[in-house]
Specification:
Shape: globular
CATH superfamily of the domain at 6-89 and 231-321: P-loop containing nucleotide triphosphate hydrolases
Number of helices: 11
CATH topology of the domain at 6-89 and 231-321: Rossmann fold
Order of helices and strands: EEEHEEHEHHHHEHEHEEHHHEE
Strand content: 15-25%
Bound molecules: iron/sulfur cluster
Distance between the termini: 14 Å
Number of strands: 12
Strand order of the largest sheet: 6-7-8-3-9-10-12-11
Largest sheet: 8 strands, mixed
CATH class of the domain at 6-89 and 231-321: Alpha Beta
């Protein structure tokens, strides 16, 4: 169990699971379960950037959707500002969502192509009854300025912008409600490398200025390391390691984390990657391996790893890991 930081926590997740039902074939009656999230614990402190990293399909996007209340968990608890989401009425959830925002990977598909920038950014103010008319226009202009856009962009449509500018519009749409908590789901993965750093810097600046709390989801450890205060590493529906950013970089304990770090490109031809190089494919979340889910790919696997799931325990202050070979 991950120690919670009491009232410093904005989000706390306990034993969270999300299974999706699937059938083997269209004529099959046999139900199988996709164990997208299979018992995860963590907490996010106010003002913190909490990074969640892992390969595609490991369940990290599902974790984001669960916290945002977009889907219901199969089991486990989610607390936001100390309140259990499962015990909230629809009206309370609706009000809570005003305090949350999300920036998706593909801005072009998250922005309505028939709406102008002014309409896209101003719409949340109308939906939540915050402002209309001239007051709304002034707020929209102020927010556009914060993301590096100006009045000349107000009446233009999303397709008239580059990918980086579209992501700025998507960020402005979130910013306009001044949320406490923002899920950034692969916010730069669909962008050119040249604009990725600009968007990450913009998100960092906005966090400083507006005291946002971020859950940053990415398959790219480079991106997560760049922005996060603490990092959780996810593998096949489970969190295998959580540590402060510098501790995870300097002292990765889980072999999977070591393999992710070894894969981060370093611009030095003489650099020899430390740690292990990952081989094999990520296993299916429908029928994950028994014991430690990483054992088919782990060079240190022992017989116990195939039989018993390792506990997720704190080995140093704030450093949690799930591996039979790591002891406190
Ligand atoms: Fe490898 Fe075993 Fe540790 Fe899993 S528990 S990461 S298989 S050593």
């Amino acid at each position: 169990m991950v120690k919670a930081g009491a009232n410093r926590d904005l989000v706390a997740v306990q034993g969270l699971k999300k299974y999706f039902e699937t059938k083997k074939g269209i004529f099959s009656r046999r139900v199988r379960w996709i164990r997208a999230v299979d018992g995860v614990d963590f907490h996010i402190q106010r003002g913190e950037v909490f990074g969640l990293v892992g390969e595609s399909g490991c369940g990290k996007t599902t974790v984001g959707k669960l916290i945002l209340g977009l889907i219901r968990p199969t089991a486990g608890k989610i607390y936001f500002d100390g309140r259990d989401l499962a015990k909230m009425s629809d009206e309370e959830l609706r009000r809570l969502r005003r305090r949350m925002g999300v920036v998706y990977q593909h801005p072009q598909s998250s922005l309505n192509p028939r709406m102008t920038v002014s309409e896209i950014v101003g719409r949340p103010l109308e939906i939540h009854g915050i402002a209309k008319g001239e007051e709304k226009e002034k707020i929209v202009l102020d927010v556009l300025k914060e993301v590096g856009l100006g009045p000349e962009h107000l009446e233009r449509f999303p397709h008239e912008f580059s990918g980086g500018q579209q992501q700025r519009i998507a960020i402005a749409r979130v910013l306009v409600l001044k949320p406490d908590f923002v899920v950034l789901d692969e916010p730069t993965s669909a962008l050119d490398v040249s604009v990725q750093a600009h968007i990450l810097n913009l998100l960092s600046d906005l966090r400083e200025k507006f005291s946002f709390t971020y859950l940053l989801i990415s398959h790219d450890l480079n991106v997560v390391e760049h922005m996060s205060d603490r990092i959780a590493v996810m593998y096949v529906g489970k969190i295998v390691e959580i540590a402060p950013q510098s501790e995870l970089r300097d002292n990765p304990l889980h072999p999977y984390t070591q393999s992710l770090l070894a894969a981060v490109p370093v611009p030095d031809p003489k650099y020899k990657p430390k740690g292990i190089v990952l081989r094999g494919e990520i296993p299916s979340v429908i029928d994950p391996p028994p014991g430690c889910r990483f054992h088919p790919r782990c060079p240190y696997a022992k017989p116990v790893c195939r039989e018993r799931e390792p506990e997720f325990s704190e080995v140093e202050d704030g450093h949690y890991v799930a591996c039979h070979l790591v002891r406190a």
